[in-house]
């Protein structure tokens, strides 16, 4: 089944470039230049690529209204932004964006981010299981299994594993993980992330035949390996 992605971007050149690259990646694409048009385009859309700066209202404002509607509460949204500041980033995520991409971006990265967002939801828009080799992360059941065995995780360990699993292949800094997994109310340091990663590794690699899932990327943060990297050598 071909999945449809809605692109909301007022700049024609960017809109057409995004359309081209998503079509190349195998998606059907609908595109419009304002949020007022976007409301009419949402039926059977599996994900939205949403620009921040739009003519009638900002992408963030529209996203807040979209999220308030239960029909679209779980629709994956990738925010496009020329802004890279920490506060803007947090505002976008806070409004309900699942991920964001700072302009200029590469076609490969755009397609990879959209693919990652779609991987974590079923075609009906519900969260579903993420499978990475022998590791299965079931968002609906709130449990993770390794080779069929349920892992004994704390709530935060599960949330971290589920987030990393849903965004496999992408490197996250400790601060980004704090923003996305712990949330804005969390008071504490980046060491908390290291402690949770260490604990998750101990649990995941207790089974010695399992490959290393969580990779440290020097000077940058952590990355969940993609399935293609998990094949035995
Ligand atoms: Ca714009």
Any key phrases for this structure?
233 residues, alpha/beta, 5-stranded parallel beta sheet, 4-stranded antiparallel beta sheet, binds calcium ion
The value of Rg in angstroms is: 18 Å
Helix count from the secondary structure assignment? 8
How far the N terminus sits from the C terminus, by CA atoms, comes to: 33 Å
Bound molecules: calcium ion
- The general outline is globular
Largest sheet: 5 strands, parallel
> What are the low-pLDDT stretches, counting only 5+ consecutive residues below 50?
none
Structural class: alpha/beta
Number of extended strands: 12
Portion of residues in helices? 25-40%
Strand order of the largest sheet: 2-1-3-4-5
Order of helices and strands: EHEHEHEHEHEEEEHEHHEE
The overall pLDDT average reads 84
Strand content: 15-25%
Can you offer a commentary on this structure?
With 233 residues, the chain is an alpha/beta fold. Helix content is 36%, strand content 21%. It has helices spanning 12-24, 35-38, 59-68, 86-94, 107-119, 155-166, 174-182, 191-204, and strands at residues 4-8, 28-32, 47-51, 77-81, 99-102, 129-132, 135-138, 143-146, 149-150, 171-172, 214-217, 221-224. The relative contact order is 0.10. The model has no long low-confidence stretch (mean pLDDT 84). Calcium ion (CA) binds at residues 10-11, 51, 53-54.
């Amino acid at each position: 089944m071909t999945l449809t992605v809605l692109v909301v971007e007022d700049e024609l050149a960017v809109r057409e470039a995004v359309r081209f690259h998503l079509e190349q990646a195998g998606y059907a694409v609908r595109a419009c230049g304002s949020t007022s048009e976007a409301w009419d385009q949402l039926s059977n859309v599996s994900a939205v690529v949403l620009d921040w700066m739009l003519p009638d209202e900002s992408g963030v404002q529209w996203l807040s209204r979209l999220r308030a509607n239960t029909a679209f509460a779980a629709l994956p949204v990738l925010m496009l932004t020329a802004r890279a500041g920490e506060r803007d980033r947090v505002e976008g995520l806070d409004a309900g964006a699942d991920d964001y991409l700072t302009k200029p971006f590469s076609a490969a990265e755009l397609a990879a981010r959209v693919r990652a967002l779609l991987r974590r939801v079923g075609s009906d828009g519900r969260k579903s299981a993420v499978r990475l080799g022998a590791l299965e992360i079931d968002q609906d059941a709130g449990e993770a299994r390794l080779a069929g065995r349920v892992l004994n995780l704390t709530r935060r360990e599960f949330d971290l594993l589920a987030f990393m699993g849903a965004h496999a292949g992408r490197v996250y800094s400790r601060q980004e993980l704090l923003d996305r997994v712990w949330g804005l109310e969390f008071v504490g340091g980046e060491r908390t992330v290291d402690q949770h990663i260490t604990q998750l590794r101990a649990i995941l690699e207790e089974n010695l035949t399992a490959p290393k899932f969580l990779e440290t990327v020097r000077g940058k943060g952590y990355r969940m390996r993609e399935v293609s990297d998990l094949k035995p050598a």
